[in-house]
Amino acid sequence: MAIHKILVTGANGQLGWELGQLASAYPAFEFVLVDRSQLDLSHPDGFEEMITKIAPDCIINTAAYTAVDKSETEKELAYTVNATAVQTLARISKNLAIPFITYSTDYVFDGEATSPYLPTTNVDPVNYYGSTKADGEALAIAEYEQTIVIRTSWVFSTHGNNFVKTMLRLMKEKESLNIVADQKGRPTYARDLAKATMQMVQLLDAGQSIKGIFHYANQGETTWFDFAAKIKAIAGLSCTLHPIDSAAFPTPAKRPKYSVLSTQKIESLLTAPIPNWEDALQACIKALN
Ligand SMILES: NC(=O)c1ccc[n+]([C@@H]2O[C@H](COP(=O)([O-])OP(=O)(O)OC[C@H]3O[C@@H](n4cnc5c(N)ncnc54)[C@H](OP(=O)(O)O)[C@@H]3O)[C@@H](O)[C@H]2O)c1
Q: Which of 152, 174, 283 is nearest to 230 (CA)?
């Protein structure tokens, strides 16, 4: 079935917003962008009628409960939004016989690996948020085999809250900062992930069969400390950065030591190469200015 109308949830989040920014570049598609006030995933029983009325040809679910530390105490809400609602969206997509794209996280893994995690690597969530996302993936795929799950990591954008914007603010406010240096991962510019998603939508629209789990992150890998150092260099700031161990920065939710995602599978589908994280960071900071 050809795709015309695309329903995007989480319109106010980093990724949802970036998809909205791309809409004018894809005039063949009509984007219906809905935020939390229009489609609340914490009430999964309530939104089937609304979606059926919109009659989308594709659903892209970027909405999620992303407060990683808070999810350790707000368990029920995190589970409803990240697992139950995702299953419901998969069921609605199945009933409408349309593609369903949803996102997940590097936190579905244990963080103990020493080489990049593959989409086929067994999940073993490092924290409660990760376990809600892992359950969301599994429930959605069990409900609707055509579900597409894109796991991503360390997302940043000009819009919303993220490490890049927090660092830029703190580096201007403070003379020195302690940054965790013993966790490794792959930063992801939400703009690049939005573009990759649209490439997949175009392939689906052209009749290609795509389903299952994919990983997307910018090329390369880094630590939070080196990420911060690069932000500082690009922005030309003078704050002193001190590397610290995770043990010196305890958080309610455990973080993975190593959460590098292998993106080989999605690269074989995409027409454009995945940008390097440093170039992506440069583009984001330029867009912020
Ligand atoms: N951010 C990361 O570093 C990261 C890392 C790995 C994976 N991911 C995954 O990537 C996807 C996109 O993340 P993102 O960075 O764009 O997240 P984000 O910026 O935190 O945006 C999430 C959006 O979901 C919305 N939302 C929260 N609860 C909702 C509810 N009950 N009903 C409807 N909407 C609700 C939020 O609404 P409000 O604006 O009203 O709060 C927000 O706009 C998510 O699946 C996330 O789990 C993100």
A: 283
Per-residue pLDDT of the chain (289 residues; tens, 9 = 90+): 799 999 999 999 999 999 999 999 999 999 999 999 999 999 988 889 999 999 999 999 999 999 999 999 999 999 999 999 999 999 999 999 999 999 999 999 999 999 999 999 999 999 999 999 999 999 999 999 999 999 999 999 999 999 999 999 999 999 999 999 999 999 999 999 999 999 999 999 999 999 999 999 999 999 999 999 999 999 999 999 999 999 998 899 999 999 999 999 999 999 899 999 999 999 999 999 9
- How far is 260 from 17, CA to CA, in rounded Å? 25
Q: 5-162+187-219+256-276, which class in CATH? A: alpha beta
Cα separations (Å) of 284 from 29, 40, 87?
A: 25, 29, 33
- Nearest atom in ligand 1 to the alpha carbon of residue 151 is 7
Q: Which helix (H) or strand (E) holds 242?
A: strand 240-244
Protein residues with CB under 6 Å of any ligand 1 atom: 10, 12-16, 36, 39-42, 62-66, 81, 103, 105, 133, 152-155, 160
Q: For residue 249, how many other CB atoms are within 10 A of its CB?
A: 13
Please give the backbone phi and psi of residue 212, each rounded to the nearest 5 degrees, phi first: 100, -165
Instruction: Report the alpha-carbon distance of residue 256 to residue 259 in Å, rounded.
Output: 6
Q: Answer whether 99's CB lies under 8 Å from 153's CB.
A: no
Q: At what angle do helices 224-235 and 163-173 cross, to 10 degrees?
A: 60
What is the value of pTM for the model shown?
0.97
Sign (positive or negative) of CA dihedral 197, 199, 201, 204: negative
Residue 43 alpha carbon, nearest atom of ligand 1: 31
